[in-house]
């Protein structure tokens, strides 16, 4: 059963309709129809955190030392990432490693990419001319250049670099939806185990924290290799 409650089902159909539809088609199970008239309440701790979040301009500021300190506090004390299976953890870590290999961004700011939609990622890549079409054009441009026999090795290496880059970008795009789905399911499961607060801002907060925890786990694993 992909949905934990009717409230969660409604939230998904409003905010993530494509994912909700896929879940219903995948599991082919009837959704609960009984509506719960429980008004979600925000805990005092969450309310204080949200107010501070807004005062900071809508985002939490981190220093590089804060991020490293959190990752190194205990090299074996990984975020639990409850609600995420072993395979899903491996998928998240592999995706982060692919982002690192791509060289697209400083990894200290990489975790929000996990929350993006495939369309968000494509727009970002297009803006940097790192989308597949732009890379294909770059490959064609290299093919049109004239290389001397002595430069044949340089030509082969240039083509190899472009093809490797395209392979990584293709992986990031093809797996973006799966990675986002993993974090959404985990966030909703986390909320169900907690106070059941499905307010949009709370779901988004937990969703983003899941991405941050996955990033922290990736950094922690790097530290013990």
SSE topology:
Blueprint (H helix, E strand, L loop, with lengths): L5 H10 L1 H11 L16 H12 L8 H9 L13 H17 L15 H10 L4 H13 L7 H23 L1 H18 L6 H25 L1
Helix pairs in contact: 1-2, 4-10, 5-8, 5-10, 7-8, 9-10
Short account of what is shown:
With 225 residues, this protein is mainly α.
Q: Could you characterize what this model shows?
A:
The chain is mainly alpha-helical. The chain has 3 domains: 1-38, no CATH class; 39-120 and 175-224, no CATH class; 127-165. Helices cover 66% and strands 0% of the residues. The protein has 10 helices and no strands. It has helices at residues 6-15, 17-27, 44-55, 64-72, 86-102, 118-127, 132-144, 152-174, 176-193, 200-224. Helix 1 packs across helix 2. Mean pLDDT is 76; it is low at 29-40 and 57-78.
Indicate how many domains the architecture comprises. 3
Radius of gyration: 21 Å
Note the total helix count. 10
Instruction: State the separation between the terminal residues, measured CA to CA.
Output: 38 Å
Broad shape? elongated
Q: Which structural class matches the secondary elements? A: mainly alpha
Strand content: under 5%
Could you give a short account of the major beta sheet?
A: none
SSE string, helices as H and strands as E: HHHHHHHHHH
| Beta-strand segment tally | 0
Stretches where pLDDT falls below 50 for ≥5 residues? 29-40, 57-78
**Overall average residue pLDDT:** 76
> Helix content range of the residues, please?
55-70%
